[in-house]
Amino acid sequence: MIEDAGEHATRLGGVSYDPVSKKLPASAPIAQSQLVDAFARYEALTITQLHEEFERATARFRDWVEDPANEGRPLSDAPDYVARIAIDSLIERRTWME
């Protein structure tokens, strides 16, 4: 909710916690419980913290992809695969909702 100060909005007020980890399974079947767990792990972070965590997860993901031992393996085998999906989804959601 944007607080009104005459013609110009001045600040956001009433921004609330958005429990994606609880809303998603209630509205759609989820094949991967790991995705719901990842949402629960990251959804309380601020937008700044989400960006920082996404950068760290992306660095680990790139290291995994560039490791010759992982050549030919599906990307879904990467340790940060599901975390990156959840974090990126939360960033997208926060960007357009807040």
What does this structure look like?
- The chain is mainly α and 98 residues long.
- It has one domain.
- It has helices at 20-27, 33-42, 47-66, 81-97, and strands at residues 2-5, 8-12.
- It has a two-stranded antiparallel ribbon with strand order 1-2.
- β1 and β2 (8-12) form a beta hairpin.
- α1 packs antiparallel against α2 (33-42) and α3 packs antiparallel against α4 (81-97).
- The N and C termini lie close together (9 Å).
- The model is unreliable at 12-16 (pLDDT under 50).
How many structural domains does the protein architecture include? 1
The structural class is: mainly alpha
Question: Oligomeric form of this entry?
Answer: single chain
The stretches of 5 or more residues where confidence is low (pLDDT under 50) are 12-16
Helix content: 55-70%
Number of strands: 2
Provide the spatial order of strands within the biggest beta sheet. Answer: 1-2
Taken from the alpha-carbon principal axes, the silhouette is flat
Secondary structure tally, helices: 4
Major sheet: size, sense and barrel closure? 2 strands, antiparallel
The N- to C-terminal Cα distance equals 9 Å
Radius of gyration: 17 Å
Order of helices and strands: EEHHHH
What's the rounded overall pLDDT mean? 80
User: Proportion of β residues?
Assistant: 5-15%
